[in-house]
């Protein structure tokens, strides 16, 4: 599975961004897709996951502000980010797995999000 993330950039606090992750190489509709992020000097943090059945879960720090979605025609997963704060500044990575749980073996290259105060 190849993953290509895009959509990062510089945004002011309170603003919004939408990240995209295009997948290829395997039947996208059967993949469970997720977003993680890693801020400078911090460990990687789980952001959100969406199953092939469209069920979703979110990390506590983004609940109510971020929305994960998928388009099985475009083979793309999205992360809509609203009410951004400087604490959301990080490199965002998309990831994929075939199983419903466990490690994510497939990772994109990351897209950088910077939120200015």
Helix content: under 10%
How many separate helices?
0
**What fraction of residues sit in β-strands?**
over 45%
The H-and-E topology, N to C, reads as: EEEEEEEEEEE
Low-pLDDT windows of residues: none
The tally of strands reads 11
Provide mean pLDDT, rounded. 96
Gyration radius, in Å: 13 Å
Q: What overall geometry do the principal axes of the alpha carbons give? A: globular
**Alpha-beta classification:** mainly beta
Main beta sheet, described?
7 strands, mixed
In short:
By secondary structure, the protein is mostly beta strands. The chain has strands spanning 2-6, 9-12, 17-24, 32-38, 45-50, 56-58, 66-71, 76-81, 90-97, 106-107, 111-116.
Question: How would you sum up this structure, described in words?
Answer:
This protein is an all-beta fold and 117 residues long. It has strands spanning 2-6, 9-12, 17-24, 32-38, 45-50, 56-58, 66-71, 76-81, 90-97, 106-107, 111-116. 32% of the residues are buried.
List the helices and strands and how they pair.
Layout (H helix, E strand, L loop, with lengths): L1 E5 L2 E4 L4 E8 L7 E7 L6 E6 L5 E3 L7 E6 L4 E6 L8 E8 L8 E2 L3 E6 L1
Parallel strand pairs: 2-11
Antiparallel strand pairs: 1-3, 3-8, 4-5, 4-9, 5-6, 7-8, 9-10, 9-11
Question: Which key features would you list for this structure?
Answer:
117 residues, 11 strands, seven-stranded mixed sheet, four-stranded antiparallel sheet, mainly beta
């Amino acid at each position: 599975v190849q993953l290509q993330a895009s959509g990062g950039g510089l945004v002011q606090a309170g603003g919004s961004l939408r990240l995209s992750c295009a997948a290829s190489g395997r039947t996208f509709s059967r993949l469970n897709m997720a977003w993680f992020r890693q801020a400078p000097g911090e460990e990687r943090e789980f952001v959100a996951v969406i199953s092939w059945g469209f069920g979703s879960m979110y990390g506590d720090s983004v609940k109510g502000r971020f929305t994960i979605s998928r388009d099985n025609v475009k083979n793309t997963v999205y992360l809509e980010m609203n009410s951004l704060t400087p604490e959301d500044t990080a490199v965002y990575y998309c990831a994929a797995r075939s199983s419903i749980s466990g490690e994510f073996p497939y990772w994109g290259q990351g897209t950088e999000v910077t939120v200015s105060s």
